[in-house]
Amino acid sequence: MIYKRSSALFAEAEKVIPGGVNSPVRAFKGVGGTPIFVKEAKGAYLYDEDGNRLIDYINSWGPMILGHAYKPVVDAVVEKAKKGTSFGMPTEIETKIAELAVSMVPNIDKIRFVNSGTEACMSAVRLARGFTGKDKIIKFAGCYHGHSDAFLIQAGSGASTFGTPNSPGVTQGTAKDTLLANYNDIDNVKALIQANKGEIACIIIEPVAGNMGCIPPKSGFLESLRVLCDDNNILLVFDEVMTGFRLAKGGAQELYNIKADIVCFGKVIGGGLPVGAFAARDEIMSYLAPLGPVYQAGTLSGNPLAMAAGLAMLEALDGEENVFTRLAEKTEYLHKGISKVLTKNEIKHTINRVGSMISVHFDENEVCDFDTAANGNNDTFKAFFHGLLNEGVYIAPSAFETWFITDALTYEDLDFTINAIDKLAKQI
Ligand SMILES: *Cc1c(COP(=O)(O)O)cnc(C)c1O
């Protein structure tokens, strides 16, 4: 494939935008080469600036669960735009999407809309701190909760010690309140709680981790976290920015039948426009301004275009009983197909999958936390990524990302992808 125009556009972009991108994951740092510039997209396909068609397995990193340019969403946005794009005053559509979200998701009475997943998680933690009157939080190594300071803390060698910032600009003062635990390691969490008795406001977790590949919670892990939180007056915060409205109508809470205290949303809830949200039972949400003392605000929060897109998306997902089963079936088909051709070509791999989230790791051992995710062979991944791209299949340019299956994908698209992998597997 030819990427002449993409390369030229990237060179232009680099002059005026740091690294040529407005979010680092879009750069090809992990795989080499230059990013592809998209011209348009429809259904399961991206069309780039050089006229190449690519089958899309990223789908804007999750939001486009029903495919690109999904008509009801596009129509809703276009209609709304004609009537004014922002008012900074309440509008009826905000209540409509709130009512629908509250009806779809278990254990929430009220929801506040923001503009990104980052804002949702940042605000959820502030609310948890305000509600409990405690400062510290526990997060898990390899889980991503957006780029606000408290979350940019990485495990050193000892994951159970105080965090150190993994970005300059995050102060030690902030880092000392973020404690790091290993995903799927309940004893680690117990030890942290023991060592910080009475100081922990919340545990925040991706109930299915999606930012180190797809890593399911081990059986009983989320249940044990729930018990630990109850016993220690700690709030359990589910970051469902990726899993919300994707794994089921009610997200991971519904799938695993666990009650979180605060739930964060993003991605699918905005139907491709910038939307995030956080939600909880009434008692907790009442702590939020203007009802309560915890401040949180946004000039463009609840923006009519964003709400129109989100509402159309949630209505589509709510109205179709089988959509989540159908997505899971397509993902299972892909899983089996890829596994078969990689095995046939003697390429060591592990494939993780929950619902419509799937990741391929080039290591034969179980991938269940950040360390095991980091064990994958990155040279194999690079060859795999570029090989697929050359066949017209676009996966995330990083071995640490989940693939997002969209309902627009047909079984022919899946077969095409599996055959492409069979072809390129002979060379890697
Ligand atoms: C994408 C993501 C975020 C951040 O959302 P943005 O809209 O990019 O700010 C937070 N948490 C999880 C689990 C995510 O996948």
TrEMBL record:
Pfam families: Aminotran_3. GO terms for cellular component: cytoplasm. Its cofactor is pyridoxal 5'-phosphate. GO terms for molecular function: glutamate-1-semialdehyde 2,1-aminomutase activity; pyridoxal phosphate binding; transaminase activity. Pathway: Porphyrin-containing compound metabolism; protoporphyrin-IX biosynthesis; 5-aminolevulinate from L-glutamyl-tRNA(Glu): step 2/2. InterPro entries: 4pyrrol_synth_GluAld_NH2Trfase (IPR004639), Aminotrans_3 (IPR005814), Aminotrans_3_PPA_site (IPR049704), PyrdxlP-dep_Trfase (IPR015424), PyrdxlP-dep_Trfase_major (IPR015421), PyrdxlP-dep_Trfase_small (IPR015422). It is an enzyme of class 5 (isomerase). One of its GO terms (biological process) is protoporphyrinogen IX biosynthetic process. Keywords: Cytoplasm, Isomerase, Porphyrin biosynthesis, Pyridoxal phosphate. The keyword Glycoprotein does not apply. It is found in: Cytoplasm. Its EC number is 5.4.3.8. The modification N6-(pyridoxal phosphate)lysine is found at K267. It catalyses: (S)-4-amino-5-oxopentanoate = 5-aminolevulinate. Signal peptide: none annotated. It comes from the Bacteria. Belongs to the class-III pyridoxal-phosphate-dependent aminotransferase family. HemL subfamily. Homodimer. NCBIfam families: hemL, PRK00062.1. This is Glutamate-1-semialdehyde 2,1-aminomutase. It comes from Hyunsoonleella pacifica. The gene is hemL.
